[in-house]
Amino acid sequence: MSRKGRGYRDSQSNVPGYNTRNTRGSVASSEYSQPSPTDTAGHYRTGSQTDQYGNYRRDTAGTPARGSFDVYSDFNNRAPDDFDERARMNLPVKEEEDTLNNASDTLDSAGGTGGILRSNSNQINPESLTKPKQRKRCCCCSRRICVFIVFFILVALGITLFFVWPRIPELQILGAKADGTPNISVDPPYIKMNFSITIEIKNPENWVPIKFNKIEAQVYDLNTIASYDRPIATGMITKYSLPPRQTSTLDFPIEVDYVGKDVNDATIQDFLSACLPSLTGGKATTLNIRVDVKLHPWAISWIIKPEITKQISDLVD
């Protein structure tokens, strides 16, 4: 070896912590003192790290001990220690950690899951989570199914009412006939008699039979109704069923029970002329009457009671 080489080695041997090789190839280390806590790396370094460098042992001063060439020169000159706890755990450096924490806070404020990047103590408590609101249910089904069920029920009810709801039939009075001999007196003036009115009933719009609890009729004399606005005769039938979509005939019984003021009462004179013309000395005349019919349908009479009015100006017995 040249003198220059020996001189360089001798000068390096005086450096504290410099390792020299003996004649047998073993590695010898000179004595060195414990470095201060505030060395160039900024961390404590203790002991040798043979496990990480193999035969190249690293001392606390960060200087390799093998050969005259410092193969770890680049690493030893760096201020941070790459083999400290943070580097070994592959954790982000301080700047990256601050960036991740800021992003985590942003996600937390927006309802995200950035809090997972934090420590376990700052993670979301499952008990504090709000359970999602469940849709309200109607009985044992969802609200949508309940709406459909109600809709179909209303449609079915409407169709049923269309067929079973009673329509008012058409009435036409065909004539009248006395049941027996009328009892008419002039002193005292009164009329007692029974007769029946033949009524034609047309029922083309009803699809089912219509049942009536009762049918009431009131008869008025059109000649005296202005001064005597009360019925001179009444009638009623009960438990009557009207067949659907056809025309039927009904003999409706009427009872006359009228008491006049005197023999010259206009109502008594009208009945005498129509029923007993021999007593008045003239020919038979017609009665001018008005018939008011009130219907009481079964099951719905408390809702509706249809009324039908017919005027007859040529009723002859």
What would CATH call the class of the largest domain?
Mainly Beta
* Uncertain segments: 1-10, 15-62
Instruction: State the CATH topology of the largest domain.
Output: Immunoglobulin-like
Q: How does the helix and strand content classify structurally?
A: alpha+beta
Order of helices and strands: HEEHHHHEEHEEEEEEHHEE
Largest sheet, in brief, is:
8 strands, antiparallel
**Shape, per Cα inertia axes:** elongated
CATH architecture of the largest domain: Sandwich
**Cα Rg:** 61 Å
Please name the defining characteristics of this protein:
317 residues, Immunoglobulin-like, 3 domains, 8-stranded antiparallel β-sheet, two-stranded antiparallel ribbon, 12 strands, elongated, transmembrane helix, 12840_t:CDS:1, NDR1-like
Report what the structure shows:
There is one protein chain. The protein is α+β, with helices and mostly antiparallel strands and about 325 residues long. It folds into 3 domains: about 1-85, no CATH class; about 135-165; about 170-315, Immunoglobulin-like. The chain has 8 helices and 12 strands. Strands 5, 6, 7, 8, 9, 10, 11 and 12 form an 8-stranded antiparallel beta sheet that branches. It has a two-stranded antiparallel sheet with strand order 1-2. It is elongated, with a radius of gyration of 61 Å. The relative contact order is 0.08. Mean pLDDT is about 70; it is low at about 1-10 and about 15-60.
Give a short summary of the structure:
The protein is α+β, with helices and mostly antiparallel strands and 317 residues long.
